[in-house]
Write a structure and sequence with these properties.
The complex is a heterodimer of chains A (393) and B (459). Helices cover 43% and strands 7% of the residues of chain A. Chain A is built from 17 helices and 8 strands. The two termini of chain B are 34 Å apart. Chain B folds into 4 domains: 2-90, Uridine Diphospho-n-acetylenolpyruvylglucosamine Reductase, domain 2 (2-Layer Sandwich), CATH 3.30.43.10; 92-220, Uridine Diphospho-n-acetylenolpyruvylglucosamine Reductase, domain 3, CATH 3.30.465.10; 224-315, Alpha-Beta Plaits (2-Layer Sandwich), CATH 3.30.70; 322-418, FAD-linked oxidases, C-terminal domain (Vanillyl-alcohol Oxidase, Chain A, domain 3), CATH 3.40.462.10. The chains are: A alpha/beta (393), B alpha+beta (459). Bound molecules: flavin-adenine dinucleotide. Residues 66-74, 77-78, 89, 109, 132-135, 138-139, 141-143, 145-146, 148-150, 205-206, 210-211, 323-324, 452 of chain B line the site of flavin-adenine dinucleotide (FAD).
Chain lengths: 393, 459
């Protein structure tokens, strides 16, 4: 009799050898799986998770709060998928973890902060429990028009709309896009969540609803091209929305800015600054965009770009992926990912960590404060650096 | 909460102990075919002092203690056969010192092979250590605890021969330095000119103490590495070929291997020959010498060099990641190998035996041998892949491996990283006086019988 599995990729789970390559970056410098690095038990590594899932499917262990914590401690950074040595099934690893979370949602056994996140999303439409009509406040003070037949919608997402650091970054990106004469409009309070993190946390029905609503709005408004502030939104718009009927093109802001800066000279003054760039997982590993953000930085005269040991495909996640930005399951202990990442940045001797994701910006900024290194390291969005260089500060 | 749990939390903190069902399930097994057995606690210390306190507690409570690295020995050596505390050593992973001129490194007892490799590459690119082809996550201390072999074993012996000093927590809780660190701050020699006490720990599979620090010899990392593969369909000629190659005294590593899949390899015996140099002249000279050594077999049409351009990158990778892929040939996440240490002239008979066992038990196999110390011995890996979902296949692998070990013992070989059952087979066959020494040492070092019990026990 054909065996049935509770999750879609259940039939490959037992093929994991738990050899542990998934824990590392390509050069083995240090552990590159944030949840393994943070918790230090093999169960929190991708291989450990695979074995536990197999045991759970075989009913050798039952659903429990600890099992749920292990699953939700995954930051969906995709490192494991790139490092796993089994080409025939490694691509499924992140999906498998997501599928298990879907089941945990169905069973109602999710960690309390995940439950609270879903609740806030359902009631308020955002994880910050802020009124929906405050969603456009981020744009106050800048002259960004409401969307009406511009070439691009500039979509900021939950963090860009509500988080102080995210708002700062959103404003900066909007200003730079406009300075580069990119025709953008924004949805302000009509914008709703993209749902990327809702999906990675396993709430597929809520995700579907959000996606369909976005797709309808975009269609009604004639939106054909979208620039996102946030790689998370970029990821889900690009990868998940088409299957639900979306027919718009999506770009991350660094793609458009890199291209425009090539085509249109922007006045940039000499800006002698040593900068290290932190690759956001949803831009880098998930979508292969490594060069454009770096090209923007390299275009700034006098700026020296130095790399952290773990960068590009081997970048270490800030810990904010997989919904952890909101749930903070990895937020305790000496080896919490944002702090680890800041230590890695400090090693380069850079004075600035450049980021291209509002979640990363916030996570890393918090770590800079927690480590008490504000005088040595600043966290800035790429466009914030451009603005400084163009303002000759 | 039990008193033991309370004490463990006092020692390593809340995040350093687990009694959760998930960790207990996971740490009760390894990826091989042996039955799991649940520990009572999983503990992850960060310092030698914590290890000492754990061992002292275990000693006073008479609870088993099982040191664990990455659990990739595959032969169940970290399965807590009698329950107790599994000590996951991997949080002790600092590289404490590299002495570049004396060419040694000092690392903590849970440091992985991969991390030492990366560290050397970054800070001392002119140095390297003898990396096994085991996954990068495997630990250096575990590897010497089971007499592992690596890329430099052909030149310099077992990886355990490369140890330059140890810090060990004895089963009775004392912290003990072995070799030059017992006399001063340097970690350059594990024995000469002292009696070699490292032999009380190396090869003991964690039954005589927990290694918390070790010194390891480093070697020149030449700028260029290259590789050739010589193929023959006559296994009986392989020992002679290996002999001629080792006579050169020039080569980094030599592996002889055979496998039925993919088809290009079927019925052939490959010898992978690695060599290094600081410039092209050195590399080309070595290549020329390799070709010259094997020319007679090409003349007699008994072998030839393979074109390997397409797989060179994979072959030169360290560790060679694709070796782990063997676990998926039966689409099932598992393989296990027993690897007796044998004299090289026995290669043909082990090869024949492996093929016979694969046929008898209907299993997918791979055979691979690594030369040790210029050909004084070789590790001959008898590997079978299995599907973890197929209990019958796993049983057949177990039976085939048992039979391989039985065969190795009949042939005078030494089973390597033997599981507890194979250890018993070894002890039964061993000269009784030798066995008595072994038992005496164990009894004296571990009077309460707490260290990885079930291993190196005759009954
Ligand atoms: C694909 C593959 C390739 C391999 N290739 C090689 C190879 O080329 N060469 C080779 O030698 N092996 C090889 N192996 C076998 C094995 O993985 C290695 O020997 C490896 O070094 C085992 O390390 P570990 O950390 O996984 O050990 P574990 O399985 O965790 O432990 C092994 C033994 O060491 C003991 N131990 C662990 N830590 C300590 C400590 N700190 N103090 C005292 N005792 C301790 C344990 O109790 C146990 O008895 C290979 C395995 C695989 C899967």
């Amino acid at each position: 009799m054909e065996k049935t599995y509770p999750i879609r990729h259940g039939d490959v789970v037992h093929r994991c050898f738990r050899c542990g390559y998934c824990k590392f970056p390509g050069d083995y410098t240090d552990f590159n799986c944030p949840s393994y690095k943070a918790f230090g038990w093999d169960t929190y590594s991708p291989g450990g998770r695979m074995w536990l899932i197999q045991a759970w499917m075989n009913k050798e262990i039952t659903t429990s709060p600890h099992f749920a914590e292990i699953m939700y401690a995954c930051v969906a950074c995709d490192n494991c998928k790139n490092q796993c040595v089994f080409p025939k099934f490694r691509d499924f690893l992140p999906e498998i973890f997501e599928e298990v979370k879907e089941k945990l949602v169905e069973e109602g056994v999710v960690p309390p902060p995940v439950r609270d996140y879903f609740k806030a999303m359902t009631i308020y439409g955002n994880p910050y429990r802020l009124p929906r009509d405050a969603r456009g406040d981020w744009a106050k003070g800048i002259d960004v028009p409401e969307f009406s037949a511009q070439e691009y919608l500039f979509y900021v997402g939950d963090v860009g709309a509500f988080d102080e650091v995210g708002c700062r970054m959103a404003r900066s990106v909007a200003r730079v896009l406009m300075k580069l004469e990119v025709s953008i409009g924004v949805l302000k309070e009509q914008e709703i969540s993209d749902g990327n993190d809702v999906r990675t946390m396993g709430e597929t029905e809520l995700f579907r609803r959000l996606a369909l609503e976005n797709i309808t709005t975009f269609k009604e408004k004639g939106i054909k091209r979208v620039i996102t502030l946030d790689p998370h939104a970029f990821n889900t718009f690009k990868k998940d929305y088409p299957a639900l009927g979306a027919d718009f093109q999506v770009f991350h802001h660094t793609e458009i800015i890199a291209e425009r800066m090539r085509a249109k000279r922007m006045e940039l003054f000499n800006y002698p600054l040593t900068v290290t760039y932190h690759d956001p997982c949803y831009l880098g590993r998930h979508n292969g965009i490594y060069e454009q953000p770096r090209n923007i930085l390299k275009a700034i005269p006098g700026l020296k770009l130095v790399e952290m040991q773990q960068h590009g495909i081997d970048s270490f996640c800030c810990g904010g992926g997989g919904g952890n930005f909101f749930t903070d399951i990895l937020g305790a202990g000496d080896e919490r990912p944002n702090v680890v990442r800041i230590r890695q940045a400090l090693e380069t001797g850079a004075g600035v960590v450049a980021v291209a994701c509002p979640n990363c910006a916030k996570m890393l900024l918090n770590a800079v404060k927690e480590e008490g290194v504000e005088d040595r390291l600043e966290v800035l969005g790429i466009t914030e650096i451009i603005e400084r260089a163009s303002a000759n500060l | 909460m039990s008193d033991v749990l309370k004490s463990l939390i006092e020692i390593v903190g809340k995040n350093g102990v687990s009694t959760n069902a998930e960790e207990l399930w996971y740490y009760s097994r390894d990826p091989g075919v042996l039955e799991p057995h649940r520990p009572d606690f999983v503990v992850a210390p960060k310092t030698t002092q914590q290890v000492q306190k754990i061992v002292l507690l275990a000693n006073s409570e008479k609870i088993p203690v099982v040191p664990m690295g990455a659990a990739m020995a595959l032969t169940g050596l970290v399965i807590p056969l009698k329950g107790g505390i599994v000590v996951d050593m991997k949080r002790m992973n600092r590289i404490l010192e590299v002495n570049p001129l004396a060419r040694y490194a000092v690392v903590e007892g849970g440091t992985s092979q991969g991390m030492l490799k990366a560290y050397l590459q970054k800070h001392h690119p002119e140095l390297r250590h003898s990396l096994p082809d085991a996954p990068a996550a495997t630990t250096i201390a575990a590897n010497v605890s089971l007499h592992g072999q690596g890329r430099l074993s052909q030149q310099y012996g077992f990886n355990s021969d490369m140890v330059t000093g140890l810090e060990v927590v004895l089963p009775t809780g004392e912290i003990c330095s072995i070799g030059s660190p017992s006399l001063g701050p340097y970690w350059f020699s594990k024995s000469p000119s002292l009696p070699d006490l490292s032999g009380l720990f190396l090869g003991w599979l964690g039954t005589t103490g927990i290694i918390t620090r070790l010194g390891l010899m480093l070697y020149p990392n030449k700028k260029i590495r290259d590789v050739e593969i010589f193929v023959t369909d006559r296994p009986e000629l392989v020992p002679e070929m290996l002999y001629r190659l080792t006579h050169l005294e020039l080569l980094e590593d030599i592996n002889a291997w055979f496998q039925p899949k993919p088809l290009v390899f079927k019925d052939n015996y490959q010898i992978t020959i690695y060599f290094t140099g600081d410039d092209d002249d050195e590399v080309e000279f070595k290549r020329k010498m390799v070709w010259r050594a094997l020319q007679p077999y090409m003349d007699s049409k008994d072998g030839g060099f393979m074109s390997i351009q397409y797989m060179k990158q994979m072959l030169l990778e360290m560790p060679q990641r694709t070796i782990a892929d063997f676990a998926d040939v039966a689409k099932g996440g598992g393989f296990e190998y027993s690897g007796p240490i044998i004299p090289i002239e026995h290669f043909p008979r082990y090869a024949a035996k492996l093929i016979e066992l694969a046929e008898k038990y209907n299993l997918l196999y791979a055979g691979a041998a690594r030369l040790i110390s210029g050909g004084h011995a070789m590790m001959f890996a008898v590997s079978f892949a299995f599907n973890r979902e197929d209990a019958d296949m796993m049983l057949r692998v177990k039976q085939a491996l048992d039979e391989a070990t039985e065969f190795a013992l009949q042939q005078g070989g030494i089973p390597w990283k033997p599981n507890f059952h194979e250890q018993r087979m070894i002890l039964q066959r061993m000269d009784p006086n030798t066995r008595r020494i072994l038992e005496m040492i164990k009894r004296n070092l571990d009077p309460r019988g707490i260290m990885n019990p079930g291993n190196w026990e005759a009954n």
